Amino acid sequence: MTLLSLAASETDIDVAARRLAATGRTRVPGLLGEGAERLHALLADPAHDWSRAIRNPFDIDVPAAAFDAQSDTDRQAALDQIYAEAKEGFHFIYDRLLIRRTGVGAEQTPALLKAAADLFNSAAFLAFARRLTGDDRIVFADGQATRYLPGHFLNRHTDANEASGRLYAYVLNLTPRWRAEWGGQLQFLDAEGEVTESLIPVFDALNVFRVPQSHAVSVVAPFAGAPRYSITGWWRSQAPV
Predict the structure, then answer these.
(1) Which of 13, 17, 70, 111 lies at 20 to 30 Å from 235 by C-alpha?
(2) What is the pLDDT of residues 21-74, one digit of tens each?
(3) Spatial separation of the C-alpha atoms in residues 144 and 130, rounded to whole Å
(4) Would you list the domain boundaries of the chain?
């Protein structure tokens, strides 16, 4: 049985392709159909050992459970430092599960997440990516599962990284219900820092945008009714060696 498959309609793909060509960003609704429901159920399972991504000089994550197990005083002190550094500079805090199909750590990756990575690198899906973007350079898609909890955010950045062959960024939204008031919106900014477009994480919608492009994920509100789940990554011009 195929665990996941592309379910987006031909019409929606064509409409999204025209928007991407005109604006540099787009959204494809209904990407996986029932597969998105299965992925949400997987990510919502409390058994997972999420890592907490926090910008630091060592470029390493910490176990989310260990961060949360600190005393209230120590945890708040850590958050205060993160928020202070984020006030004027680039910073982030969110949780993630790396998706490893082979090699070290692959045994810890749930089968359904491996299936998502397999789908995203299948001939049919890469053909979809090239059709959507009109870019035949796309040969590989990486990815990670992410979870934004209240207080989590990702400050403005451009995703620029020519050495890695990044061409387009994507976000597959996997929270069944989300309100704009809960934050966690994918925001695009112009050269003056004005928000030119803000997208709420609509369930099973694939957001795609050309890189480099200034964007951010707004802070998730303390009253948000659910974690903000997604699978994110880049469509690249080269596969890892």
Answers:
(1) 111
(2) 999 999 999 999 999 999 999 999 999 999 999 999 888 999 999 999 999 999
(3) 21
(4) 10-236
